[in-house]
Design goal:
two-stranded antiparallel sheet; mainly alpha; single chain; 52% helix; elongated
Length: 430
């Protein structure tokens, strides 16, 4: 029996190490001495100083510990230890003086930390807790990266039947207005048989925008999403991409004429403009269909599903083209500062200068209409439907006016008609 006294403290504690359990040699006098020392240690007052944290408290004999429960079905190990003292106020502390923390020798899996926080006075529990974002496998063999969780499906936004009918009628009315304006513009230029490169670019803008709004009329959505709805969503995506592609080509044409890069007819020929304007969007659509075909259309609309990767497939190319178009418009700057090339077509240059200013108005209007329309269909919000309707009417009227007045022949006709109208009004007032 060994007694240790803390000489540097005001409280003396006695620690008894019983060796009678580990050896068969000894005398009856030694056993009696061990029992007397244990009884005197039990009567020692519990220290109340900071030494409690370092577990210098008097040990308890093994006989006072709970009986061990042996279960052959579990991987258990009996360790010879004369004491295991539990502190209710500090469950994370062990009596390391007489019984080391089992976590010192217990091996947890990789990325796991051993702890004994769940231990009680009756049961010693060793637990391995996974760290660094990992979780324990069901068989407790290793820590693994948690599998991805299934996101909660977004509830389908719905409008009352009466409200849905009104918003649908208003939206179709706006699409009808833009279709009428664009049809008049196309027919007007067909009558005058104007097919120069600049006009072909503008005509393709009008045709693609007209077709996109025609595809907005049918209501082919349902659950599950029918094939007709997917086809409509693909066509809407294609025609809007075509429209913005030709607006970019118009910016290139405008810059080449205003900045005196070429003498006439722009940088690209009519055939080149047609191939690029209709071909690049087709490639973009095919690329998106390879990865996001199932996300075209939805249960309650046939446009863009903004909660899928298809959002990036539609918006990124269009935003890139819009930003590039604005960059070219800004780069053209003031046309008077550029030197004029010899034999430069003044009519084409004048038309390009007008196009430079009209694009600054038409491009943000068309882009705003596209964004508002996609969000309105996805969110099913009445204010967005109203904004979409107003923008469509403005886009149709603005495109009709600016395209008519950008070409000399139609501009002259428009001037005559307006002058006659105002003259008649002036005579009636007088």
């Amino acid at each position: 029996t060994t007694t240790t006294t803390a000489a540097d403290t005001t409280t003396e504690t006695k620690t008894t190490t019983t060796t009678a359990v580990e050896t068969t040699a000894g005398s009856e006098g030694t056993v009696a001495t061990a029992e007397q020392t244990t009884e005197s240690a039990a009567e020692t007052v519990k220290p109340i100083t900071w030494i409690d944290f370092w577990e210098l408290e008097t040990s308890s004999p093994c006989g006072d510990q709970p009986q061990e429960e042996w279960d052959e079905s579990k991987n258990q190990t009996i360790r010879n230890c004369n004491t295991w003292r539990y502190y209710p106020d500090f469950p994370y502390l062990w009596n390391h003086t007489n019984c080391p923390d089992p976590c010192i020798t217990y091996k947890c899996p990789k990325f796991a930390k051993c702890n004994t926080l769940l231990s009680t006075t009756e049961d010693m529990v060793i637990q391995c807790t996974c760290q660094l974002g990992t979780v324990m496998k069901s068989d407790n063999s290793s820590c693994i990266v948690p599998p991805p969780t299934t996101p909660t499906p977004r509830p389908i936004p719905t409008l009352p039947a009466a409200t849905k009918t009104v918003t649908g009628a208003v939206s179709r009315t706006a699409s009808t207005l833009i279709i009428i304006f664009l049809s008049i513009t196309i027919v007007s230029f067909l009558v005058f048989r104007i097919f120069d490169p600049h006009r072909v670019i503008q005509m393709c803008e009008e045709i693609s925008l007209l077709c996109a709004h025609l595809c907005l009329f049918p209501s082919a959505y349902g659950s599950p999403v029918p094939v007709e709805c997917r086809v409509l969503a693909i066509l809407i995506h294609y025609f809007f991409t075509v429209c913005f592609t030709f607006m970019l080509l118009e910016s290139i044409h405008m810059y080449s004429m205003v900045a005196s890069v070429v003498k006439q007819k722009g940088m690209l020929s009519t055939k080149q403009n047609l191939v690029v304007g209709w071909g690049i969007p087709a490639f973009v659509i095919l690329f998106n269909m390879c990865f996001e075909y199932e996300n075209y259309g939805a249960e309650y609309h046939c446009w863009l599903s903004m909660d899928t990767g298809l959002l990036y497939g539609q918006y990124v190319p269009i935003v890139v083209m819009v930003v590039t178009s604005f960059t070219l418009i800004e780069a053209a700057g003031a046309s008077e500062e550029y030197p004029t090339l010899k034999d430069c077509d003044e009519v084409d240059k004048k038309t390009a200068q007008i196009s430079q200013r009209t694009l600054l108005i038409l491009l943000p209007l068309v882009f705003g209409s596209f964004v508002t329309g996609t969000i309105a269909e996805y969110e099913q919000q009445v204010p967005l439907y109203g904004t979409f309707t107003i923008l469509n009417g403005v886009v149709g009227g603005a495109m009709f006016f600016f395209h008519i007045t950008s070409h000399p022949k139609t501009r002259a006709l428009f001037t005559r008609i307006t002058s006659k109208i105002f003259k008649k009004k002036g005579k009636e007032e007088t």
